[in-house]
């Protein structure tokens, strides 16, 4: 396998349906993009360059704020070029986007994130944030110039632009990221824009009959005091009866609504599940909170500015998220790139109704190569076993089952709050049940490894399962951000199997616990555990035995672009 090929990767050639778009544009960015084909092999042969995650070929932006924000937007821009061209020739579009440059929406003005809405008749329209001559954030419309062009290469901005400008007390620098619009039975379109007034985060609602003339509603769809600026809001229905996705405009019985916002203060994505009342045009949250950073999250690691879209071809809702680097700015400059996209994930409401579930879209399985299958294995206390035959890009799924779960007396006591201090203590702190799990991207002498593991605590009346991703030993380079992440798993370990699925791709580890109940994404930069020197282990450092009932791992092929 190896990583000598310089192709960037895409894995969902059969992906169809509605899409979102995020964009940033300037001549400079586009020029960079158009050098796609000729980026140097010194970049693609880097150990941290991913094999099957989506990332831009390179970016050479200078200037601190520009560098950070534009790289993320740049990432989105590439998505734009791929996703704007949505429709029915997806795989061709992907190829075109990479070999022929990009679909340009903004040639002459700066623009930020936006979303695609599919209008009746199937034609896409993009609402996006532009920056006007006075440096104000405003919302604009773009529609394809030639609907017969399968790549939708050219877009028109109607003379009515801008369609929405910061009104009342809205700060002109805090008014951005329109969602996909939805239409009610009253034939009125709605869209929300992320904003804030003072420190109150807002999802400002606009309505329109014709998609061009938009009027601001008196009341926001939702707002929360002291939550700061809301970026990239997302508002969509989920079925309470089925894991299938539904179109953004669906309301009615067996539907709940999800409002997600990207809290600028924390650089993290939070969501609430609730009820949307289309009469009052408000969201009434049942679960989750934006008040502080204790609410429900898509991902408890690095994951920001995500958006979903409804894929009508496969009736699923798909989540995309942006993943920042954890390396220093100077290291990023040396690498020549920064930022990538998480594996696209299916998103649906858990049977409990209390949280969302996520799972990598099945298309990724096409990239599976060499498989390693392990017989069931008992992990004694303090044991560690190597799993061989896997390359640095790995994907694996394992089920652990503890033995003797009920016999334990000496549980670590655990309060009812979401207290992650235990996670921060890392894998080396021992308990009865756990830590047990995996060491991924581990070097020969274990100078470097990333531990993805469980710990189980006794709560008041139930067991509490904590899943962690501990980066503290991930690299001997101490300049990186090595924060360890933790997430609680809403499952009963006495009656349910525990599982982890990790998508490991050189500098990223995306882990899904409990079949998608909690996700943690980490960025890591090993210096020893690279290429064929990256190993995989299962370990159990708890005092109780743990049975691995099944473990499968696949080497992942690099995605190809023809
Ligand atoms: C629109 O696109 C189609 C397909 O590429 C092309 O044949 C046609 O000439 C285009 N029309 C215009 C007005 O450019
Ligand atoms: C925002 O803060 C300013 C200054 O403290 C205050 O005058 C204004 O009333 C506040 N606006 C709102 C909507 O609370
Ligand atoms: C835009 O819509 C509002 C509300 O429906 C209406 O009052 C106004 O006349 C419309 N403006 C134009 C230019 O059509
Ligand atoms: C939010 O802030 C506003 C204005 O300061 C205040 O009137 C309102 O009571 C606050 N709401 C909550 C839930 O604290
Ligand atoms: C929506 O709000 C209106 C006005 O407050 C209320 O009459 C109606 O019952 C609400 N609908 C639902 C489904 O809760
Ligand atoms: C990206 O991550 C770095 C390192 O953890 C952090 O310093 C920076 O603020 C992050 N940037 C964004 C836009 O989240
Ligand atoms: C979290 O737990 C730690 C150790 O158990 C404790 O010291 C700390 O006060 C707790 N923090 C919160 C916010 O409850
Ligand atoms: C497991 O415990 C051993 C002995 O205390 C320690 O050396 C090792 O680092 C622990 N493993 C992990 C993954 O923390
Ligand atoms: C471990 O799990 C395997 C597979 O389910 C099972 O066959 C085996 O008996 C288990 N071992 C123990 C000691 O429970």
From TrEMBL:
Transmembrane segments: none annotated. Residues 1-25 form the signal peptide. Residues 427-555 form the Glycosyl hydrolase family 32 C-terminal domain. It holds the Pfam family Glyco_hydro_32N. The keyword Hydrolase applies. Keywords: Glycosidase, Hydrolase, Signal. This is Glycosyl hydrolase family 32 N-terminal domain-containing protein. It comes from Citrus clementina (Clementine).
């Amino acid at each position: 396998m190896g990583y000598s090929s310089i192709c960037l990767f895409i894995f969902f050639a059969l992906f169809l349906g509605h899409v979102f778009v995020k964009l940033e544009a300037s001549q400079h960015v586009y020029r960079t993009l158009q050098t796609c084909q000729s980026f140097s092999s010194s970049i693609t042969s880097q150990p941290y360059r991913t094999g099957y995650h989506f990332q831009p070929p390179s970016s050479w932006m200078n200037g601190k704020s520009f560098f950070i924000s534009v790289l993320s937007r740049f990432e989105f821009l590439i998505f734009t070029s791929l996703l704007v061209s949505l429709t029915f020739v997806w795989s061709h579009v992907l190829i075109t986007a990479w070999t022929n440059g990009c679909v340009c929406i903004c040639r002459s003005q700066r623009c930020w994130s936006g979303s695609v809405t599919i209008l009746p008749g199937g034609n896409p329209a993009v609402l996006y944030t532009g920056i006007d001559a006075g440096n104000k954030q405003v919302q604009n419309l773009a529609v394809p110039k030639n609907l017969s062009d399968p790549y939708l290469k050219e877009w028109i901005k109607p003379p009515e632009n801008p369609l929405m400008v910061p009104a009342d007390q809205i700060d002109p620098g805090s008014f951005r990221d329109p969602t996909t619009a939805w239409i009610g039975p009253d034939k009125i379109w709605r869209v929300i824009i992320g904003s804030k007034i003072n420190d109150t985060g807002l999802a400002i609602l606009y309505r329109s009959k014709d998609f061009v003339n938009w009027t601001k509603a008196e009341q926001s769809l939702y707002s929360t005091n002291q939550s700061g600026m809301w970026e990239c809001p997302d508002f969509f229905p989920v079925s309470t009866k089925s894991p299938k996705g539904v179109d953004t405009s669906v309301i009615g019985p067996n539907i709940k609504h999800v409002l997600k916002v990207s809290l600028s203060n924390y650089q993290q994505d939070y969501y609430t599940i609730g009820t949307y009342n289309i009469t009052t045009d408000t969201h009434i949250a049942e679960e989750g909170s934006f008040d502080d950073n204790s609410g429900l999250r898509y991902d408890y690691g690095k994951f920001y500015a995500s958006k979903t879209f409804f894929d009508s071809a496969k009736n699923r809702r798909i989540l995309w998220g942006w993943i920042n680097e954890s390396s220093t700015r100077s290291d990023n400059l040396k690498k020549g790139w920064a930022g990538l996209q998480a594996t696209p994930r299916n998103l649906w409401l858990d049977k409990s109704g209390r949280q969302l579930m996520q799972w990598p879209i099945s298309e990724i399985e096409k990239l599976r190569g060499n498989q390693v299958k392990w017989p069931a294995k008992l992990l004694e206390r303090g044991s560690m076993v190597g799993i061989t035959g896997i390359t640095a890009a790995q994907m694996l799924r394992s089920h652990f089952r503890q033995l003797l779960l009920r016999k334990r007396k000496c549980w670590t006591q655990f309060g009812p709050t979401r207290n992650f201090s235990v996670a921060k203590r890392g894998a080396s702190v021992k308990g009865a049940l756990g830590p047990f799990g995996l060491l991924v991207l581990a070097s020969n002498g274990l100078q470097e490894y990333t531990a993805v593991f469980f710990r189980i605590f006794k709560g008041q009346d139930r067991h509490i399962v904590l899943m962690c991703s501990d980066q503290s030993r991930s690299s001997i380079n101490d300049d990186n951000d090595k924060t360890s992440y933790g997430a609680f798993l809403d499952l009963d370990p006495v009656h349910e199997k525990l599982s982890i699925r990790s998508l490991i791709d050189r500098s990223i580890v995306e882990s899904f616990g409990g079949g998608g109940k909690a996700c943690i994404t980490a960025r890591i930069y090993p210096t020893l555990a690279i290429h064929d020197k990256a190993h995989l282990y299962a370990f159990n450092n708890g005092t109780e035995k743990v049975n691995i009932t099944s473990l499968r791992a696949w080497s992942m092929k690099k995605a190809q672009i023809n």
